[in-house]
TrEMBL record:
PANTHER family: BACTERIOHEMERYTHRIN. GO terms for molecular function: metal ion binding. It comes from the Bacteria. Residues 16-127 form the Hemerythrin-like domain. The keyword Metal-binding applies. SUPFAM superfamilies: Hemerythrin-like. NCBIfam families: bact_hemeryth, hemeryth_dom. This is Bacteriohemerythrin. Belongs to the hemerythrin family. The lineage of its organism: Bacteria, Pseudomonadati, Thermodesulfobacteriota, Desulfuromonadia, Geobacterales. The keyword RNA-binding does not apply. Keywords: Iron, Metal-binding. Pfam families: Hemerythrin (PF01814).
């Protein structure tokens, strides 16, 4: 059973954020599964992927915040830094060959991410939806004239 099942209530008003969040949740689920299976090689690979993907995702959100002059950018990015440090710490512990059953920090990562999505990212998505102009509607076809 996965650690976290995606629910429609996790969806925000910005599609790219939802895609990224679902990928992060699936990587955290995969890490949890690797712990249950005591698969340390799999765990090293998944945590490396999680670190890379979190870097990519946080950069995407930082770019969105910059582009629209989001007022809470600094505190939002501070939260990203906090999450990133926890994943880095997990990676160091894996490289130090700490037993996987000690790595219940994965549960913390899942709880942190859900809280961040439901509160902090929801605020950001609402701001983006209200302040970034939507793509223009395509012009009507000339053929109908
Ligand atoms: Fe965020």
């Amino acid at each position: 059973m996965p650690l976290c099942t995606w629910e429609t209530s996790f969806n925000l008003e910005v599609g790219v954020m939802n895609e990224h969040h679902q990928r992060l949740v699936s990587l955290i689920n995969a890490a949890y599964d690797a712990i249950q299976l005591n698969d340390s090689h799999g765990m090293v690979r998944i945590v490396g992927e999680l670190l890379d993907y979190a870097t990519y995702h946080f950069k995407t959100e930082a770019d969105l915040m910059r582009q629209c002059g989001y007022p809470s950018q600094a505190s939002h990015m501070e939260q990203h830094g906090h999450f990133f440090r926890h994943i880095s710490d997990l990676q160091s512990r894996l490289h130090a060959r700490e037993p996987l059953h000690n790595l219940e920090i994965v549960i913390f990562l899942k709880e942190w991410l859900m809280q961040h999505i439901l509160v902090t990212d929801r605020e950001l998505a609402g701001y983006l939806a209200a302040n970034v102009p939507a793509a223009p509607e395509p012009l009507p076809s000339q053929d109908s004239a």
